[in-house]
Amino acid sequence: MSLDEHRVRPKRRDAALNNERLVRAAREVFAEQGLSATLEDIARHAGIGVGTVYRNFSSKKAIVESLYDAAIDSALAEAQSALEIDDPWLAIVAFFEITAANQARDRGLCETFLGTDGFGPNERVAEKLVGVLSPLFDRAHAAGVLRDGVSVTDIGPIFAMLNSVYHTSDDHPDLWRRYLALMLDGLRASDRPALPVPAMDATAFARALTTRT
Fold this sequence. Notes:
Blueprint: H1 3-33, H2 39-46, H3 50-56, H4 60-80, H5 88-105, H6 107-114, H7 123-142, H8 155-166, H9 175-187, H10 202-210
Helix pairs in contact: 1-2, 2-3, 4-5, 4-6, 4-7, 5-6, 5-7, 5-8, 5-9, 7-10, 8-9
């Protein structure tokens, strides 16, 4: 092996370690502070210079997209596991609880889903949300346990409302569970009057998600 090869390999290992440390730090910083965190915050948390951040990612947007495309896919996979629950209503409850818990402990994930600070889902993610979750809602309607008129596209406004209580107070980190329970009660089939206006269709849902960025 040549001297040059000896020099290149350690540099590559160092670069890989820096990248790994940077990605981990970014995920932790965004989870705690949300998407308002800066590249300087990430560099400080990672214990590296901000120049190293720029050598790995061209911008904060590049970091966010790298992290949360995968994170949203992972969250969808967890939500899809709710279909394995035999009881259709408990499956709906599990989906909302799993998703809300993920968002409550990760501000960055929540803000990415909601389209905050110029970041948000693209049309591919919006279409995937509808495609993955529609069977869950369809099954609950077929079983007669979901209120007439409730649609998979209602999840956007519901999670937006929950976002207002996720981080209301450090003294009440689980306060969101109270309001999720109230919302779920409103989603369950009952003798309530029909909903006053229809839900968004899939096209309007995608537009609503992607135009908030």
